[in-house]
Design a protein that fits this description.
single chain, mainly alpha, Growth Hormone, Chain: A, MFS_dom
């Protein structure tokens, strides 16, 4: 499932940067809704696996699209706050999903989960088709060029059918170089993501973000079995124990974006450089670097207090989970913002590449965490996770030190 979840956005991102955000959103939602209904109706395990892979292909594309829309309409000085908000759904899902899924499966059966997903996504899909405008700058520029075809929302189509209701289109002001609309369309190329993997400093940021996300998944995947074996919790109580993780994610995204934007504006006012010479890496990593240095500490504490022979109070474990979630979410969001800063002309493609890396590393972490716990124990396994997070520090230091120089080389 996570392999499909990683591969699908490589096609969706390229498609969205060429055909527009609206067509890509519509395609992703249709795939997701239809596969969710099929999952609720099937009773075969092979069909379950295949349909889950298809369903994840539809949902994963929207991750890159949300970041792309934010990059389309928000200036770099505000990007931290809005990118943090758009990433909430993606980051909150691993913590809120078990809570809601546990309640639904306990009282209504597992099929109710997929019926809920189908209905909730349809509720979002209808207003998207009716009201969501096209934001891709290669299609509508800064908003002053009317969209056409399926890039135009139903509301937009209705307003332009009535001349007296047409809105006045005013070009926006941005601190970044303008992106010309109606550029010659290129072929949709999912392999363009592979180039970014080996591009400096982008490749190092992608690897760092993937390692952070894999560490987050390693803790998330191992938590249910630990809560059951150590504290004897039921499925419902295990789901409720993910609330601190969700709370840490929510608070981190809220405050982190504000701090990152403040630091960006502070450095712009201090340096007063041209946008091409501005060291955006230092503006973002000035906040992200210290958090990355501190993040292994709660993971080490979690590893050292986890053994079942002398378990700590459940409240302490959940407090550590909250702290881990807060720190890893902060790093993940800052690196997402930096990636879009460096590739704001093609945000869907860069976020699709980011999704590819994080999903493959996340899948590897999910697959390895339980065998590692069985072979080496909880303490050794999560000490290893802390070391993985710490290994990101030298990677980000290289980006901080030589990022601008690498960008100028092209």
């Amino acid at each position: 499932m996570q392999i499909c979840q990683g591969l699908a956005p490589t096609l969706t991102g390229s498609f969205a940067d060429q055909a527009g955000r609206r067509p890509a959103y519509i395609l992703c939602f249709l795939i997701y809704i239809i596969s969710s209904i099929a999952l609720a109706l099937q009773h075969s395990y092979p069909a379950l696996l295949v349909l889950r892979a298809i369903q994840s292909s539809g949902s994963s594309g929207t991750v890159a699209l949300a970041s792309a829309v934010a990059a389309d309409v928000i200036t770099s000085a505000e990007r931290g706050t809005y990118m943090s908000i758009t990433s909430l759904g993606n980051i909150l899902a691993p913590s809120l999903g078990p809570i809601l899924g546990g309640v639904l499966s306990e009282y209504l059966g597992w099929q109710s989960i997929f019926w809920f997903l189908a209905m909730s996504s349809t509720i979002f899909f209808i207003p998207l088709v009716l009201f969501f405008p096209e934001t891709c700058r290669t299609i509508v520029g800064d908003g002053s060029i009317p969209a056409s075809g399926w890039n135009r929302s139903i509301l937009n189509w209705w307003m332009f059918k009535r001349p007296h209701r047409r809105p006045v289109l005013i070009p926006s002001v941005s601190t970044e170089p303008a992106i010309q609309a109606q550029l010659p369309k290129r072929m949709i190329n999912p392999l363009s993501t592979l180039y970014l993997l080996f591009h400096l400093p982008t490749g190092l940021i992608l690897l760092s973000n993937g390692l952070i996300f894999a560490s987050y998944y390693a803790i998330t995947a191992g938590l249910p079995s630990q809560l059951r074996s150590i504290y004897g919790l039921s499925d419902l109580n295990i789901g409720l124990s993910f609330i601190p993780m969700g709370a840490g994610t929510l608070l981190s995204a809220t405050f982190n974006g504000i701090i990152v934007d403040w630091n960006y504006r502070r450095m712009v006012a201090k340096d007063r450089q041209d946008i091409e010479d501005f060291e955006v890496e230092k503006a973002r990593l000035g906040v992200g670097g210290p958090v990355t240095l501190l993040a292994p500490i709660p993971i080490l504490l979690y590893a050292l207090t986890a053994p079942a022979t002398n378990p700590p109070p459940l409240a302490l474990t959940l407090t550590l989970i909250f702290t881990i979630s807060f720190a890893l979410t902060a790093i993940y969001n800052i690196l997402n913002i930096l990636l879009v800063d460096l590739h704001y002309t093609r945000p869907a493609i860069i976020m699709a590449t980011n999704n590819l890396v994080r999903c493959f590393l996340g899948a590897a972490a999910t697959a390895l965490v339980h065998p590692c716990i069985q072979r080496w124990g909880v303490t050794a396994t999560y000490c290893g996770v802390a070391i993985v997070v710490l290994s990101v520090v030298p990677l980000l230091w290289m980006v901080w030190k030589w990022g601008l120089e690498w960008r100028k080389r092209g």
